[in-house]
Amino acid sequence: MTDLARVDQQETISRMFPTLICVATSWEALPIVQALNLKAAVSDSFFGKFGGSSILLIKTGMGEAALKKKLSELPEKSVFSRVISTGFCGALKLELSTGDIVCESDSKSLSAEIEKTGDFLGLKVRLSQIAHTAEVLHSPKQKKSFAEKTGALAVDMETAPLKSWAKEQRFGCEFVSIRAVLDSLEDSLPPDPPRSENMASFIWYFLSHPMFWATFGRLYLKQKRASEVLVEFLRRFLDHSGDLK
């Protein structure tokens, strides 16, 4: 296929098929669903239009195994124009703080739009590879050790496997990860958090870890800040990404 034919194919796909947005947890997904005015569909999925494009958002659960299971449940012949991994990430460098945006994309046009969005909103935005981890890095020591091994700016649990999945799709959809920093390099997180979003699990975890109550309080405020910035960035990005129109 020639470069021109490939461009024509991508433009056709962009006009005909929706953007897939993958978000791990409810507390990451719901503010985005509300901001984009998406409607609940089936099995933790939401659908609607924003910025002239149809959007399917699915809540995948945390980590690679949960993500792959959720993707396997999509209709067999699903075709997407673009795949977006979004939510929170952890900082691996001192220069990053809560609410900073870290993005990964191999597309020059998407990278340019990311930079323009950051400039318009006056946000610190970094384009960089986002490292993958299979477990939550809950201590500064763990994060610093991981940073030394990877050299990455930030880390999450879903970007890398979703990027691989997007590359395997038969029409070669575009991929971008847009993440807001939740915890800085020096922040500690409660160890071994529950993977389930069942309220009883969270209540039990909270009550059984009183030594981390102050950490929970700080994390709540950081989550609120990161979510507000992420939603603002996504709205602007989706509304001004040319290929979505």
Descriptive keywords:
Rossmann fold; disordered N terminus; ten-stranded mixed β-sheet; alpha/beta; single chain
Account of the protein in words:
With about 240 residues, this protein is of the alpha/beta class. The chain has one domain (about 5-245): Nucleoside phosphorylase domain (Rossmann fold), CATH 3.40.50. The protein is about 45% helix and about 20% strand. The protein is built from eight helices and ten strands. It has helices spanning about 5-15, 25-35, 65-70, 110-120, 140-150, 160-170, 200-205, 215-240, and strands spanning about 20-25, 40, 45-50, 55-60, 80-90, 100-105, 125, 130, 155, 175-185. Strands 1, 2, 3, 4, 5, 6, 7, 8, 9 and 10 form a ten-stranded mixed sheet that branches. Helix 2 (about 25-35) runs parallel beside helix 8 (about 215-240) and helix 4 (about 110-120) crosses helix 8 (about 215-240). The longest helix has 28 residues, at about 215-240. The chain is globular and about 50 Å long. It starts with a helix and ends in a 5-residue tail after the last helix. Mean pLDDT is about 85; it is low at about 5-15.
